[in-house]
Amino acid sequence: MPAESEVGMSKWFLSVLLVLLVGARADAQATKPATTQAVTQADLERQFAEMLSGSTLVGKFTETQAAQPRPQQPKEDRYTLTKVSKLYGDNWLFVARIQFGDKDVSVPIMLPVKWAGDTPVITVTDAKIPGLGTYTARVMFYRDEYAGTWSGGNHGGHLWGKIERAKPTTRPSK
User: Fold this and answer.
1) Under a CB-based contact definition with an 8 Å cutoff, are residues 141 and 119 in contact?
2) CB of 77 closer than 8 Å to CB of 61
3) Which of 58, 101, 113, 152 is the most buried (most CB within 10 A)?
């Protein structure tokens, strides 16, 4: 039979353990992060359209040709997007002014956009772009930046840059 002091010590130990467990549970509940409202796919698509409509993609691209395996120095390019909107399924309409090299054309382009979680990725394979040729590309957009790969014919490379939005115009008050 255990001694009276051992029984008292066991009760004390169990009491302390119970207080610690209850306190730890209360503390864990108090420090639990607040739940955030889930962002829907429709929200992501609206944000993507708003981010790109009226913006200019200003960046650089590299070019590697089949006959020359080393990429040349990066060159500047810019794509002015007047409007970007979802059409149906994964298909989006990009109304774009494309400037690179000696080209400067405005074209409506239907491009498929896939989603990697919250990140939109233009995914084209052998797409015919009027006046420019046939291209394959994977270009992702995140916050105010874009990056990807491209190829057309016997050449291809990488592209990256910033998404610049038009500054709002202010009118003087009368």
Assistant:
1) yes
2) yes
3) 113
Strands 55-61 and 64-65: unpaired
Q: Which two tokens stand for residue 90?
A: 């994964």
Residues linked to residue 109 through DSSP beta bridges, in sequence order: 94
What is the b/e burial string over 49-84, where b = at least 16 CB atoms within 10 angstroms of the residue's CB?
A: bebbbebbbebebbbbeeeeeeeeeeeebebbbeeb
Cβ-based burial of 3 (10 A; exposed 0-12, middle 13-18, buried ≥19): exposed
Token duo for residue 104 = 């400067």
Q: pLDDT tens digits for 103-144?
A: 787 888 899 999 999 999 999 999 887 777 899 999 999 999
Measure the CA–CA gap between 155 and 150, rounded to whole angstroms: 9
